[in-house]
Amino acid sequence: MVTPIFTGNYRHGRQVNLARSSASSHRSSQSILKDASAARAQREELRKRERAAIAIQSFYRGRRDVAQARDCLREEFIRLAGQQTIARSPGDIAGMFVFFFGKGNPGRTSQDASLIPVLERMISAGDGLSEVDSSRARKLARVLLGCLRNMETNQEIQASCLRLLRIIQSKVPLEEVIASYSSLISGLRDDSVLAKVVENIIVATKSTPDRGRARLAYIKYFLSTPYLFVNITEIGVQMQIQEVFNFSDDVIPNIAKAASQVSTITTLYESGADQDLRLEWLLANTLYMWRHQRMPMGPVITIPFMLALSNILRGLSVGASKRLSKALSNSSGDVDPFVLGNLKVLKDRQNIEMSILPVASMSSSNGTTAPSPEALLTICLYFVSLLRIWPLKKSEIRYFLYLTPEYTLPLFFRTLKSSHLFDTIMFKSFGPMAVSSGGTSLWAPGANDEYHDIAVQEWEILSLFLDICWHWMIMTDDDEFFDETQYGLSLSDVRELGAFLKILVFLIVCNEDTTVIIHRGRQIKIGAGGDNNVALSKSSALTLTKIKTNAIGIMRQLVYRDSRRSFLNKKYWLMEERIDIPAFTAQAIIDEDRMDRYFEQNMLDISDDTSESEFEEPDTRFSSSSARRDLRAKMMVTPRIEILQKIPFILPFEARVEIFDRSLDHDRAKHGLDRDYELRWRRHNAEIRRGHMLEDAFNQLNGLRSELKSLIGITFVNDFGVEAGIDGGGITKEFLVGVCKEGFDPATGLFLENSQNLLYPNPAATSPEQLQYFEFLGRVIGKALYQGILVEVSFAQFFLSKWQVQNNTVFGTGFRNTFDDLWSLDPELYRGLIKLKNYRGDVESDFGLNFTITNSHNITVELIRDGAHVAVTAANRLQYIHEVANYKLNKELYRQTQAFLFGMNDLLSPTWLVMFSPNEMQTLVGGAALPIDIDDWKKNTVYGGFYEKDATITYFWEVIEELNDEDVRSVLKFVTSVSRAPLQGFSSLKPSFTIRESGLAQERLPTASTCVNMLKLPRYETKEKLKNKLLFAVTAGAGFDLS
Question: For 452-467, how does the pLDDT look when each residue is reduced to its tens digit (9 = 90+)?
Answer without folding.
Answer: 455 777 887 888 888 8
